[in-house]
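Recap from last week: sequence in, structure out.
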Amino acid sequence: MSARFYADIALVPGTTVQLPPDAARHVQVLRLQPGDALTLFNGRGDGLPGSEGEFGATVARMGRSEVEVIVGAYTPTAREAGRAIHLAVGMPANERMDWLVEKAAELGAASIQPLMSERSVLRLKGERADKKISHWRGVAVAACEQCGRSRVPLIHEVASLADWLKGIGDAATDGSRLLLSLREGSRPLAQAVPGRGALTFLSGPEGGLGPAEEAAAIACGFSPVTLGPRVLRAETAPLACLSLLTLGAAA
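Predicted structure tokens:
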């Protein structure tokens, strides 16, 4: 199987294109040579060929920092989840957010919203936040290149939970909203998930969301759900939801 690369450019069979810098750098690291085969995808989701598939390609020229390839035949794929699942997560600290982004991309998340809440250890703003978002987007791209996905999940800019909830308000067009919670009376996930339609899961950082934050989320249409009697880590809980819905019978 040929090496697989994400290229956020128009891909048309029979044309010669210059790869974006990140993809070109990876091709050079692998020491591919003119005539070598590779696979490209752009995952734009625009309904055109390439939005849900991939292209064969051949290296045409290797420059010092540029790589030109000849785009080959398009092959449709069907590797996306059966529904759009969005994660809004209180960012776990250290390298755990990297791991969460990587595994969420592999498991089929449509988007990830990094959030800061009252119990958050990791707090980002300004240039530091921009660098982290750029890094996480690169992590998501690499995960999709490896696992075969044709759409890279959208990684949103970092936001505070309060601002994010204010922004989504009571919009009714983004599917069902579920809050991962330990509060008494939370419904089991399997009972709360509708048969179809987009889903947004909101989960907290280490220590979870505070009572006032959970109340604010519920006021915005989030229904509290539980994954069972065990308390999962901040980076594990949203991935457990994804696994159940994209790898299980509910996908």
